[in-house]
Design brief:
- The protein has 431 residues and is of the alpha+beta class.
- The chain has 2 domains: 182 residues; 184 residues, Jelly Rolls, CATH 2.60.120.
- It has 8 helices and 22 strands.
- The strands form 5 sheets. Strands 1-4-10-6-7 form a 5-stranded antiparallel β-sheet. Strands 9-8-5-11-12 form a 5-stranded mixed β-sheet. A 5-stranded antiparallel β-sheet has the order 13-14-20-16-17, with no helix packed on it.
- The longest helix has 17 residues.
- It is elongated and about 75 Å long.
- The chain starts with 27 loop residues before the first helix and ends with a strand.
């Protein structure tokens, strides 16, 4: 798969912005194909048929390594809905709101494409959420009151135009196939205080509710969970040429209509850059930080997004090298985040010791994928990723657009100025 060179003048429909005579946007198709579960490392013939449901397991995290472009500020728990004769039964979810910044439930089909989702503000009644900051109808301005109970049902049908209250839709299995018959339920929790309690999953039958833990075929479930982990750990974003490079950030479009991406969170908007490591140099990302939900802002400022982060990932393997989340980022006096990304040997320790900057490890491979994400932005936040016109992101987002420069480690360590913007601009534009 090759990047198609497109260079349209701003006078010609205003659809793309060019730099260096070519369109640098990442190949959406390459990232959409990052994990192809139908060409898995495990042969389908080796997988047992799975008709029983499978209860929760924590996934995308093996030891301290996070997979599938996940965020180190999140916890991910995956269950499988029943197939075969049981596929037509409703599933009941009984849960309690975790002490966390955000939680959500999502359903996915056998291709791991999104079917439906509900975020916390759609699950809990407004009275069960903390006092909103400004406008009670803006989901980005809520935080969660822990311990409040909720109940949902998962319907084995496609989502209708008018959603039933407290209902999540999963659709029917795509085919009578070891992989395509699977339907997934994913529980996400961001910035949880300790281990979140997991929702209880039950199947609605003529004999009443039966817990997933009573119904699951433990051997078959273990085989399918192992297949998923193998697919994530042994498959990467290698549909994109390993030597392609762009330090510029572009909005990743097309994820949230449910037809693309594996286990995508449609409450998040993404931007990607794909830098290549340059010896003795540092990749510096700088942008005006969105205002995010935290107690010190109560009644004082307009919240712009529920959560944001910047993560560094290898290009052709899935483990996440590291993330800086909003509450971890050190902002300079102008409200900008400044994240320096390099190998350990090229780390500008002198600058890091003296300035409000953060550092991320480059990762094990020279070819990287740097991901900027924003969750549940306020509609009033006009500089959000969601409002960026593809190809014109820098123009659309203004100061909130993540700009990048390439700086020598020596230059950063010897810098005497405390003006981070001037130091940033003195570095080279990333090739």
């Amino acid at each position: 798969m090759r990047t198609v060179a497109l260079c349209l003048s701003l006078l010609c429909l205003g659809l793309a912005a060019c730099q260096g005579g070519r369109d640098e946007r990442p190949l959406n198709a390459a990232l959409r194909a990052s994990v192809d579960f139908q060409t898995s490392v495990t042969n389908k013939a080796d997988l047992p048929s799975l008709h029983s449901p499978c209860d929760w397991i924590e996934t995308f995290k093996l030891g301290e390594q996070y997979y599938a472009l996940s965020d180190t500020g999140a916890r991910y728990f995956l269950a499988m809905l029943p197939a075969g004769e049981l596929a037509a039964q409703n599933v009941v979810i009984d849960g309690e709101a975790p002490e966390a910044r955000y939680f959500s439930l999502h359903t996915y089909n056998g291709h791991t494409h999104r079917v439906d989702s509900l975020a916390d503000h759609e699950i809990l009644k407004p009275a069960l959420l903390q006092i909103p900051l400004l406008q009670p109808d803006q989901p980005a301005e809520y935080t969660i009151r822990a311990g409040k109970a909720y109940q949902l049902q998962v319907s084995p049908t496609q989502r209708p135009e008018q959603r039933e209250k407290q209902t999540l839709y999963a659709g029917q299995p795509l085919a009578d196939d070891a992989l395509l018959s699977r339907r997934f339920l994913l529980y996400r929790v961001y910035d949880a205080a300790g281990d979140p309690s997991l929702p209880r999953l039950s199947l609605q039958t003529d004999n009443g509710l039966l817990a997933f833990s009573q119904l699951e075929d433990s051997q078959a479930c273990a085989a399918h969970h192992q297949q998923q982990q193998q697919a994530f750990t042994q498959t990467g974003n290698n549909a994109e040429p390993a030597n392609s490079s762009s330090g510029r950030f572009f909005r990743f479009v097309g994820l949230n209509d449910g037809s693309e991406g594996s286990f995508v969170n449609d409450h998040i908007e993404y931007m990607f850059a794909r830098p290549l490591r340059i010896p003795s140099r540092v990749y510096w990302v700088r942008a005006k930080a969105p205002r995010w939900m935290r107690p010190s802002l109560l009644g004082l400022a307009k919240v712009e997004t529920r959560f944001w982060s910047l993560c560094q990932n290898p290009r052709t393997a899935m483990p996440v090298a590291g993330c800086i989340n909003d509450h971890e980022a050190q902002l300079d006096s102008d409200g900008y985040f400044n994240v320096l990304i390099s190998t350990e040997e090229d780390k500008p320790s002198q600058l890091l010791n003296n300035q409000a900057v953060d550092w991320l490890p480059w990762g094990e491979q020279d070819a990287a994928l740097t991901v900027y994400r924003q969750m549940l932005h306020s509609p009033r936040y006009q500089s959000a990723i969601a409002h960026a016109q593809p190809g014109l992101e820098a123009f659309s987002m203004g100061l909130d657009y993540p700009r990048a420069r390439s700086c020598s480690t020596q230059q950063l360590n010897e810098a005497s100025s405390t003006d981070l913007e001037a130091l940033f601009l003195s570095c080279e534009r990333y090739p």
